[in-house]
Please model this.
Amino acid sequence: MYAPNLFQDKVALVTGGRSGIGYGIAEALLKLGAKVIICARKAAPLAEAAAALSEHGTCVQRPCDIRKSEEVEALADLIESEFGRLDILVNNAGGQFPSLARHISDNGWNAVINTNVNGTFYVSRIMANRFFVPQKSGNIINIVVNHLRGFPGMAHTGAARAAVENLTKTLAQEWAVYNIRLNCVAPGTIISSGLDTYAEPVKALLDKMKEENLMQRHGTIEDVANAVLFLASPLSAYTSGTTLYVDGMDHLHGDRMRMVNMFR
Ligand SMILES: CCCCCCCCCCC/C=C/C(=O)SCCNC(=O)CCNC(=O)[C@H](O)C(C)(C)COP(=O)(O)OP(=O)(O)OC[C@H]1O[C@@H](n2cnc3c(N)ncnc32)[C@H](O)[C@@H]1OP(=O)(O)O
Ligand SMILES: NC(=O)C1=CN([C@@H]2O[C@H](COP(=O)(O)OP(=O)(O)OC[C@H]3O[C@@H](n4cnc5c(N)ncnc54)[C@H](OP(=O)(O)O)[C@@H]3O)[C@@H](O)[C@H]2O)C=CC1
Model:
């Protein structure tokens, strides 16, 4: 539905682009003409993903832990030497684990906050200073989750993604002067590699969530990628500092707390 050359001459970085939603976003951008860089921690699957994505256009990769700002700086060096510019940043890398709040250890809490909040901030700041501010143009899309009514069963990620959403609002205002837009996409439950990591009792809960969804389904990777394409494109030129829910209305409807009570 988008023009095939929508992102011609544009360069995009997708963090966590080796798998799942990030891979789907990278593929969608490549198919519309963008040159794409993907990063993640695990070198071997990252290299495999970049090789597969290269069928659709120019895709380069570099291992990078977004929690380590020196590794993010090295990633910016690669982008500089390969492409000399960056137009679109999709902060997709992130995650958490299901747990009732009282069982989350200090390390578990810190790992989730560090990944989602610090990692997103480091990548945004470094790419803005290296590319978007000097270019006087840039577009950042932060993948969060639907946490609108809190997130029973994942308190750490609810807190972390709320922080990212607020950061998005702040940076959208501070950086508007540089013609940088920032928005969030908040997926509901999306069928992707991320969900494969969840154990059986959580999978049963996911089935119940599907029954409660007003559209009677989970989302697809394409549902999320299509929202990212819109926010990355000039079609959304007057939209910044906002959140687009891709969740079949889960943010409005459903009783997640009742379902999480299964785990008590
Ligand atoms: C109670 C029921 C709740 C049900 C709720 C269901 C709602 C479903 C809706 C789905 C919406 C969202 C879906 C997704 O986002 S799918 C994407 C999922 N993908 C990922 O999360 C991948 C990335 N995640 C990670 O890499 C890790 O989870 C993490 C963010 C923690 C970072 O990993 P890191 O490598 O730094 O972590 P370590 O292995 O070193 O561990 C650090 C501490 O964290 C503790 N930990 C890690 N995993 C678990 C776990 N599964 N359960 C409990 N604790 C965990 C680990 O033990 C360390 O702490 P300690 O040193 O104290 O042991
Ligand atoms: N699937 C779903 O239902 C939903 C997913 N989301 C969010 O969407 C995003 C993608 O999820 P999904 O594709 O499903 O899950 P995946 O687990 O497949 O994707 C997570 C990606 O992030 C990378 N990553 C994780 N931590 C780091 C890090 N510290 N530095 C660099 N890369 C990292 C992982 O690669 P590696 O391990 O090699 O580092 C992996 O490629 C996540 O932020 C997730 O929380 C939001 C709502 C719902």
Observations:
- The domain at 11-263 is CATH 3.40.50.720 (Rossmann fold).
- The chain has one domain: 11-263.
